[in-house]
Each structure stands twice: as structure tokens, then as C-alpha cells.
Amino acid sequence: MPARIHRAQETVEWSRFIATLGPAASVPDAKAFIAAVGREFPDATHNCWAFVVGPPGDTSRVGMSDAGEPRGTAGRPILNALLGSGVGDIAAVVTRYYGGIKLGTGGLARAYSGCVMAALTDLPTIEKVATVELSIIASYSASPTLRRLLEECGVVVVGESFAESVTLRVRVPEESEPALREALGQLRGQARIESRVG
């Protein structure tokens, strides 16, 4: 997914195209991003957009809009560029300032997809790691050892409560969950995973 908002600009036959790419981990995130870019360029001729929420190439949660351009000349080319990019959880808005020369449907499609592809060439990305939340109960005596184990497994403590025992709510990379369960087994019953959260 994009590490941050990133932008590229091209001029085609006097029309200026500005591609703005950003992270979109959910459909509401994508729509908020699109609205924010639209507010940034309220005087543009068009703010056309597309998004892919989910893994790279996944088409289960996508959206697109030609935003007043002829049908199929903007939203679909932007979406196709995103789907072929190898990047997921991404939204793109291409802002156009009309330069006075008509590009035709083929020219528009090439301009919109080309501007997105230019932005994708040097887009900074980060790997999205799937995580799960677990509730762990431990005795007070096992708590220091447990916290060391959690750190070794890349676990983040997101909540804790104290009663007869210590209860920790943790977020762990999904691929590390089996190793965490095995490590907790070494505490000889003094700590256990009570449940998955959510």
C-alpha cells in the first residue's frame, strides 16, 4: 500500500493532469481521500478517480468515476492502472485542467492512465501485515517473562487490566500467532490465550 500521499503531473496537448495517489485501507478511507483531493482542486475541470481496497489486483472492493469525462475514458483507465500496479489499498484521483484542445476518447484514456502510471513509478510503498487481536491471561509472577516473549514475537500490547490475574489485549502478526502459542506453552500454564478479539 502507499506509504503516503504521492503526486505526479503531466501536460498533454495543453491540458494539465495531476495524479494524486494515497493509501485506502477501507472504502470509507478511499472516499474520504477522493473528497479531500476534490476540495484541494475545486476549480479543476475534472477530478476523476478510482480505488482498489484489498490485496493487489483484488477486484472485490473497487470503485471508479469518469466525473464528467466521456464514459470509460477516465475512471476505467485509472482503475486498470491501479489493478496492474502490484499495489493494494490504494486510491487515485487524476485532476484535469482543460487546455483547450480536445483529446478524443483514446487520447483521454491514455492521458489518464499514463499520468497514474507515472505516479506509480516512484510511489513509496509499505507492506501491509495482517494482524489478529488476542486476549492473554497470565499470573502476576509470569508477567515479566510474558512481556519479553511478546516483544520477541513482534506483539504490540493494546490494552491491559489487572484483577486476580493480568489480562493483556495484544495485536500480533497473523503469521506469528502459532509461534506465540508455542512460546506461551513454555510458561507451564501460567499464561494462556483466552480468546481472539473481534
List the main descriptive attributes of the protein structure presented here:
30% helix, 2 domains, Alpha-Beta Plaits, elongated, Ribosomal Protein S5, domain 2, 4-stranded antiparallel sheet, alpha+beta
Short account of what is shown:
The mean pLDDT is 90. Helices cover 30% and strands 33% of the residues.
List strands and helices in order, with pairings:
Layout: E1 6-12, E2 15-23, H1 27-40, E3 46-52, E4 62-65, H2 75-83, E5 90-97, H3 104-121, E6 131-138, H4 143-152, E7 156-162, E8 166-173, H5 177-185, E9 191-197
Antiparallel strand pairs: 1-2, 2-5, 3-4, 3-5, 6-8, 6-9, 7-8
Kindly describe this structure.
Helix content is 30%, strand content 33%. The chain has 198 residues and is an alpha+beta fold. It folds into two domains: 6-121, Ribosomal Protein S5, domain 2; 131-197, Alpha-Beta Plaits (2-Layer Sandwich). The protein has a five-stranded antiparallel sheet, sandwiched between helices. α2 runs parallel beside α3 (104-121). The radius of gyration is 23 Å and the shape is elongated. The two termini are 24 Å apart.
